[in-house]
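REQUEST ID: PR-0412
SUBMITTED BY: lab tech R.K.
PRIORITY: routine
TASK: structure prediction, single protein chain
INPUT:
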Amino acid sequence: MSAQNTKRFFLMPAQLLGLTLTGILLVSAFVYYKAVKLQRYLEPTLAIAQPRIQFAKNLGHLIEKEFGSTDMKGVVYTASSIFIDEALLFKDIPGKKIADMIFIQRLSQIFLSILQDPQLRTHFELILVSTRVTITPHLDMNRRKWNEAQHKAQFILYSLYSVQPTLEKEYGMYFTAAALPVAPPKGDNWVEFRIIPSEHLHIEIMKSVGKHYF
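STATUS: complete
OUTPUT:
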């Protein structure tokens, strides 16, 4: 094979450098395009999540302040709910259950702190005290258990009012109690204090998201 033919198969250094730079530019443009698309997705997502994240952080601080730890056994919280094991809310006495007023006093202080903070209060419009009813194929049993669970939810709410009357006098419109159905595997030994977001929070989220599109 002649030297002239050999040159056809091998690029000159200048040509090789040019192709390399072109490849780098193409890869950089592709990575930049993907990064911009990811940013356009992440920014509104974070804007939506940020208010709930901050609220959950504040809620965690209040729980730690009252109970000494956010990892207290029997207490689990999310951005919108506090789950408490019934064993912490009631004292077992032969033949009946009575409320553990010391624990409920601490719990009531958490809700009072939230409601007395104007900024936190705008994040929600209702605190639902809910007990759980395990649904079975037996309708009569379901009705009986539902009534018992509804009575228990109201009893817990009235216990909160009893130890902290301000919750009822000034913030009673923020509370309600109800029994909620659950599937058998989930059990019914947890009481949920669900913090339902307000329309104000939804408006703030839409404003935050709008900044990224308009």
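NOTES: Helices lie at 3-9, 13-67, 86-89, 101-116, 118-121, 139-163, 165-169, 199-210.
REVIEWED BY: pending
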